[in-house]
């Protein structure tokens, strides 16, 4: 597919901001079944400071706020060519060893509820099931345990808290999947990006899913929220051990007590006329 993306984030502050820094993981790369035809990030009320590739192989843009600013706009726009590889992303990128992705983080670490989910999964599998089959079964288990329903969690919610609530969003389902896969000894990581919905162009937010490493295939994606492996409708932005390592925007600011954030996102397929 040829996907056209327009993603704008607008911050409005209650007063002048004396200092602000943000780390943007908002640049897709040509790899894993996608090819970036064009991409640009335009800033208002902020300036570019540096760009680099982090330990996960994500492209990061560091920006600072113009002193005294009351509004900051980050506008991303571009075209990405995608293919349906049945969720297979392929080999490892970045500088981190695979064992790093078997270690739990604060957001993925589970307790009694996750142990029970993993135990039930193993009991339900036939002897000799391969890793890929186990991961598909895990995705189904997580979808049953965590119903997609916004408003019950936030970015700081842990996998165990999500299982207790039984409700969450794509980020939460990804963290539970990752924690359970790691409990099974399977390397797993968080992925952020875009998803073109079939019924509309305007999207509510960017998307998140999980990836697990399968010998012979490499990294394979699992979108628990939609019960599929990512296809040509998906665009990768970043990957990491959890949300904190792959979040599209993170940062700090000083000088204004309150802020309002408004996000507009459109993802649509462009038809190529013959």
Automatic annotation (TrEMBL):
Q: Where is the Transglutaminase-like domain?
A: 162-226
**Which spans of this chain does the record mark as coiled coil?**
none
Which InterPro entries does its entry note? Bac_transglu_N, Papain-like_cys_pep_sf, Transglutaminase-like
Protein name in the entry: Transglutaminase family protein
Query: What is the species of this protein?
Result: Novosphingobium pituita
At the highest ranks, the source species' classification is:
Bacteria, Pseudomonadati, Pseudomonadota, Alphaproteobacteria, Sphingomonadales
């Amino acid at each position: 597919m040829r996907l056209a993306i327009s993603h704008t984030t607008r911050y409005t502050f209650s007063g002048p901001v004396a200092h602000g820094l943000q780390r943007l993981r908002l640049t897709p790369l040509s790899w894993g079944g996608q090819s970036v035809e064009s991409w640009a990030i335009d800033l208002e009320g902020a300036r570019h400071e540096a760009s680099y590739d982090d330990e996960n192989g994500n492209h990061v843009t560091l920006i600072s706020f113009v002193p005294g600013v009351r509004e900051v706009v980050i506008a991303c726009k571009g075209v990405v060519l995608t293919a349906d590889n049945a969720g297979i992303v392929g080999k490892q990128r970045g500088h981190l060893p695979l064992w790093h992705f078997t270690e739990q983080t604060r957001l993925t670490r589970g307790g009694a509820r996750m142990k029970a989910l993993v135990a039930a999964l193993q009991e339900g599998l036939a002897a000799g099931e391969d890793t890929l089959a186990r991961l598909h079964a895990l995705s189904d288990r997580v979808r049953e345990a965590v119903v997609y329903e916004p408003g019950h969690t936030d970015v700081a919610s842990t996998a165990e808290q999500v299982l207790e609530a039984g409700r969450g969003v794509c980020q939460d389902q990804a963290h539970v999947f990752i924690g359970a896969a790691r409990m099974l000894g399977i390397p797993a990581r968080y992925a952020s990006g875009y998803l073109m919905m079939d019924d509309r162009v305007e999207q509510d937010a960017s998307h998140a899913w999980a990836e697990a490493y399968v010998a012979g295939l490499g990294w394979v994606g699992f979108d628990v929220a939609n019960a599929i492996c990512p296809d040509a409708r998906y665009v990768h932005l970043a990957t990491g051990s959890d949300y904190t390592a792959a979040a599209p925007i993170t940062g700090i600011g000083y000088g204004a007590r309150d802020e309002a954030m408004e996000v507009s996102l459109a993802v649509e397929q462009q038809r190529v006329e013959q």
